[in-house]
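pasting for ref
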Amino acid sequence: MNLLSTGVPHLDEVLGGGLPTGSLIVFAGAPGVGKSILAQQICFWNATAERKAIYYSSISERPEKFISHLETFDFFDRGALADKVEYINLGEMLQDDQAGGLAATMDEIVRKCVEEQPSVVVVDSAKAIRDFVGDDRSLRSSIYQLAARTAHAGTTLIFVGEYSSDEIESAPEFSLADGIVELAFESNEPLDRRWLRIRKMRGLKHLDGKHAVRINQTGITLFIRAETLEPPDGALGQPEGKISTGVLGLDEMTHGGLPKGGSTIVLGPSGCGKTALALQFVVKGLETGEHCLYVTFQENPYQLIRKAASFGWDLEPYLASGHLNTYHVGEGALDLDVVASFIRAHVAGRSVHRMVIDSLSEMVVVARESARFPAYERGLLGWLRAAGVSLLTTSETSSLGPTAEAIGGLSFLYHNVVLLRYIAQESEVGRAVAILKMRDSDHDKGLWSFSITDHGVEVNSKLARVTGLLGWTALIAEPPNPVDKNAESASG
């Protein structure tokens, strides 16, 4: 099967390789979702002097208006008009019964395809054709003949129309189509979202699900839904050995450090030291020559540099050398698939050894996609695991009472779970750390006090005779054993 590249970032991958040549494809969706921009971007990408692209407008917008709207996009090339990309208005022919109406319009499209053999022909809006047909049977026959005759020229025919989801399931043009691409707009505060979904693509193994769409100066950009991607070929798997956390005392608790290539989640309430520990983990890797990526939803790069400097760590030389890269995701720009796409591209293009996501709970809350998040996180972790990246993720818990996770109990997806929390030590608030889980590795089962110093996080001493860590009860010290007191009195 010969395939036509769309030229739209990641769309060919979602389609299963591209658009089949000689096929009929329908771009369907409400007004304003990007259908016409997508079709025109494909035209300019594929148009050559030998095989041009032809864009027919029916009675929606005149060609002059289409062209004026395109001038802000990078893919638009005014020098390509006429010779490579030709805009033709069908409105007058469709509405003129004396000129032949719909039949003459269809014949005109076929004539152009036979004589000029264009690579792409777009009809926008194809839905308007229905207004000139008496019944669905006539419409089906007209579309069938048009698709069959243009296919002989090896032309990919694209219908663009404002179709609803109900119409996609029932209208005759969709039963004849080789492919159906649905675009939609969703208002999901604080971020409005567009997405694209392949409803049908004959002969190709396309990727299911809603894929995020962004429209900017470059045109349409697609971000593949993270759950649909398999780990890359030649995956490394989890390497052997352990790596140091950089935290004094924590390596001893983990019996030599964290397993290399594993995923670790650090749970704890606000202000307990999660970010300091994450920075320390990255700094240790940088000091040993590793490449690191820090994804943050709170501190921007400048704030991160200042925070690290307060502990005596200078990140700027590592940023300048490319050993450290940061990715700050603002609240208004958070889209789960955009974040995953950046991470995949960065990891694939570089040898990343350590990575931090700070924090997962904020990512869940702001994205407002809690229903899909378990599958999303499983897919992302699997991809990073296959790439051999050692990941440390932070996540928020409640400060008081049981340590409920804002991420909905997703810690089971991680190899290692580290819990930080506040404790009452006489009349002061202290901090404690415990290793709750280390998959396939032994670890200390105790509860240790830790402090945040001018040099970062330091684990101090093991706490004895305490209880209540995992429940509602506050951490308290048990009173001395009465038997021991009697024994002491007797010996005295």
